[in-house]
Amino acid sequence: MNDRVTDDPARGHSSATLLEASRLGIALTPDLRPLWAGARLCGPAFTVQGAGGDNLALHHAVLQAPPRSVLVADLGGARFGHWGEVLTVAALHRGIAGLLIDGGVRDAAEIEALGFPVFSRNNAILGTRKDFRGVFGHPVTVGGITVDTGDLVVGDADGVVALPSGGAERILDAADARVAHETELMARLREGRSTLELYDFEAGGR
Ligand SMILES: O=C([O-])CC(=O)C(=O)O
Ligand SMILES: [Mg+2]
């Protein structure tokens, strides 16, 4: 294992592996996308209830979230630039691991250059009001899934999953087993076996 994986609260597993291993409905809508190619989001959630078109809650959240946490913010899907380069620099300085936002962000190129993982519903230029101070640490709904503070959020090129904090260890152990099994299967495929026989899809005699 390399250092990145050792350091990784999700043991380096992909969103797809974690979803399959969980056997739960923990996948957010595919409409929440990485802001830049190669972004990987991973860490315990710190939840933020904001108001669409208003980003004061995010300015406060950066100060309240613990280091290594992922800000998980419900901005109602609104098409505004709720987050940009300035907030990214502030978040990086405080050791925040990334942002998952049901709403819009801006400054995509600058955020990519800073290497800060952001997953959002849209990119939008329009600036925001600064009126609503936000509610923190309570369950929020993002991408159709309820996320609570402490849930393990993992996002990559395929999408985002949120593992309930109480079940995360079980899911990670199941993901380890799934990866080991698939590594074995792929070795058989390289020897010339087929997916149909290895998975026994047609055992019913169709
Ligand atoms: O308007 C804001 O507070 C968001 C923003 O542009 C930035 O973070 O650069
Ligand atoms: Mg800005």
From TrEMBL:
<dbReference type="GO" id="GO:0008948">
    <property type="term" value="F:oxaloacetate decarboxylase activity"/>
</dbReference>
<comment type="function">
    <text>Catalyzes the aldol cleavage of 4-hydroxy-4-methyl-2-oxoglutarate (HMG) into 2 molecules of pyruvate. Also contains a secondary oxaloacetate (OAA) decarboxylase activity due to the common pyruvate enolate transition state formed following C-C bond cleavage in the retro-aldol and decarboxylation reactions.</text>
</comment>
<feature type="binding site">
    <location>
        <begin position="84"/>
        <end position="87"/>
    </location>
    <ligand>
        <name>substrate</name>
    </ligand>
</feature>
<comment type="subunit">
    <text>Homotrimer.</text>
</comment>
<feature type="binding site">
    <location>
        <position position="107"/>
    </location>
    <ligand>
        <name>Mg(2+)</name>
    </ligand>
</feature>
<keyword id="KW-0479">Metal-binding</keyword>
<dbReference type="GO" id="GO:0047443">
    <property type="term" value="F:4-hydroxy-4-methyl-2-oxoglutarate aldolase activity"/>
</dbReference>
<dbReference type="GO" id="GO:0046872">
    <property type="term" value="F:metal ion binding"/>
</dbReference>
<dbReference type="InterPro" id="IPR036704">
    <property type="entry name" value="RraA/RraA-like_sf"/>
</dbReference>
<dbReference type="Pfam" id="PF03737">
    <property type="entry name" value="RraA-like"/>
</dbReference>
<comment type="similarity">
    <text>Belongs to the class II aldolase/RraA-like family.</text>
</comment>
<dbReference type="InterPro" id="IPR005493">
    <property type="entry name" value="RraA/RraA-like"/>
</dbReference>
<protein>
    <recommendedName>
        <fullName>Putative 4-hydroxy-4-methyl-2-oxoglutarate aldolase</fullName>
        <ecNumber>4.1.1.112</ecNumber>
        <ecNumber>4.1.3.17</ecNumber>
    </recommendedName>
</protein>
<keyword id="KW-0460">Magnesium</keyword>
<feature type="binding site">
    <location>
        <position position="106"/>
    </location>
    <ligand>
        <name>substrate</name>
    </ligand>
</feature>
